[in-house]
Amino acid sequence: MKKLTPYILLIPQMIIGAVFLTGLGTGIVQSLGVIPAFGMTKFTTQYYREVLQDPNLIAAVKYSLFTSFLSAFIACAGGTLICALLVSRKKTAGPVMRIVQLPIIVPHLVVALFIVNIFSQNGILARIGAALGLLRDQSEFPLLIYDPHGFGVILAYVWKELPFVIYFVMALMANINGKLGEAAVNLGASRRTAFLRVTLPLCMKSILTAFLIIYVFSLGAYEMPFILGATKPKALPVLAYVAFQNPDLRTRPRAMAVNGIIIFLSLLAVLVYHLLIMGLRRKGERA
């Protein structure tokens, strides 16, 4: 029985994995035009060709890549900086970390509504600015929500994911800084040099992993761009969602083709991540 225990414990994970892989496989098959329930039984790349020839798709790809990359970059850069400050001041536990963890448990939909209520031209900041005479009218408040550049989407993702980076990197950074970082300081290095040459490089794998998680998640999530984004351009997940809601169910493969492109871009990001990690590993071996 003891020999079977590990396999029994794996059953829930296997069930969840099977459901995920079934959905993924079904989506890929449908993107190739096969939906037997609708009498569509022949594989074709027609829907991918149609999607790739759509000018709205190019705009959606640029928009999604821009908002996802910038959100992940700002969250990782800011999170790493704050993490370094907390570690240097030995505030890696207690009330500070509880405050940091708060945004992590807030649903993305709630964050989107929070951003609208504060940063829109009818939001709290615009009203305060107009009431104090800083703005002649609320419409003079910078267009951060529903703008074509996705600044509202980026702002929401940074607010939500920056604490995730801190929480993700904190334990490792504190451990490295408390051992190898202090050893470097004892050998004559300044604390800044010890952080830049010892602690940060050894934390880079975790930072890149956090970047990948945020990037791929924001690339495939539709809530934020759906609520905070402009009508045009649409983000890729929103484009897929709109196509999926088409009452003509025979156009379903078009929506799945857009999802297929999202999967491709996500896998491309994973490949780049893998190459960067391999580069860091080779650099560490040479050092």
UniProtKB/TrEMBL annotation:
Keywords: Membrane, Transmembrane, Transmembrane helix, Transport
CDD domains attached to this UniProt entry: TM_PBP2
Membrane topology per record: Multi-pass membrane protein
Regions that span the bilayer: 7-29, 65-87, 151-173, 194-217, 256-276
Protein's name in the database: Putative spermidine/putrescine transport system permease protein
GO cellular component: plasma membrane
Subcellular location: Cell membrane; Membrane
All copies of domain ABC transmembrane type-1, residue ranges: 61-273
Sequence similarity: Belongs to the binding-protein-dependent transport system permease family.
PROSITE patterns cross-referenced by the UniProt entry: ABC_TM1
Family matches, as Pfam families: BPD_transp_1
Biological process per Gene Ontology, one example term: transmembrane transport
